[in-house]
Amino acid sequence: MEIENVVIIGSGPAGYTAAIYAARADMKPLLFEGQRLGGQPGGQLMLTTEVENFPGFPEGLMGPEMMEKFKKQAERFETRIVSEDVTEVDFASRPFKIKAGEQEYLAKSVIICTGAQAMWLGIPGEQEYQGHGVSACATCDGFFFRDKEILVIGGGDSALEEANFLSRFAKKVSIVHRREELRGSKIMQERAGKNPKIEFIWNTEVREVLGDGTSMSGVRVFNNKTNEEGELKADGMFVAIGHKPNTSVFKGWIDLDEKGYILTKPDSTETSIEGVFAGGDVADHKYRQAITAAGTGCMAALDAERWLADQE
Ligand code: NAP
Questions:
Q1: What architecture is domain 134-239?
Q2: pTM
């Protein structure tokens, strides 16, 4: 079986940037774009609207369009892309073993860029009404809520961004936050604050999604300041409470932090296993931006290239 120089797992900004650099260093990378690990190929930008903060695009562009460009650039330098999820790895000895679909692959080095995905509240009714009012992606589902009343859960930038986006369609958007102080950035807070369709419901926890079995009609809530329970009427609920890293496949093989993010060495993308590198949100709970993911994807390719050169 052929032994790959470098296998890249993941197809967000980190994965494709790693691929572009590895391909241009003649490493002939093989990239698994994944179906399930990161939700879908292309990662979280596939669920974003306008990206306005990626340098080099002064007019901004849509997240999915940006990922199409990343992919094209990686393909231009002959990255081989496999549309499979990696389901198993074996990092016990080199070459490393990677299983995807029915096939096993061997690799001298691996770059993990599997990103992170949206978290859910884990309350009754949430799963039942997914696709029938409950969503974690305004870009995907906002269109279905024209002239409706929507709740957005969370108090960070994601919640504020989702609320602003949804206000284009909705009659009213209520941001339900468990505290009375937002975590999101000043500029996003101002934008939401000025939006006449957006209102805030403070100190409120959503406890259950209510409905008639076919579509949601509202939620049961608890005010943690007054200890009162109540109901809010709503046609839709968008959950925007943060993300978790896609690392289940790597558990037990490499060191992870308490939240499951991959631990890398200081000023490096090296993981606890020599020859395995990590870039992007899977190893970053702090910055989590497309540009920082691309940056650490580039670092991972350079680290892998230098490590391979040292081996040979
Ligand atoms: P976040 O900053 O971690 O915020 C998560 C929010 O959800 C917090 O307000 C948190 O409440 C709340 N929350 C968490 N678990 C909850 C639960 N079980 N029940 C109810 N509420 C819960 O996550 P994020 O908003 O996804 O942002 C992540 C990072 O991406 C940030 O660095 C952000 O700046 C960045 N981002 C940037 C943009 C942009 O610039 N356009 C857009 C999106 C995200 P507490 O505040 O009480 O903890």
A1: 3-Layer(bba) Sandwich (3.50)
A2: 0.78
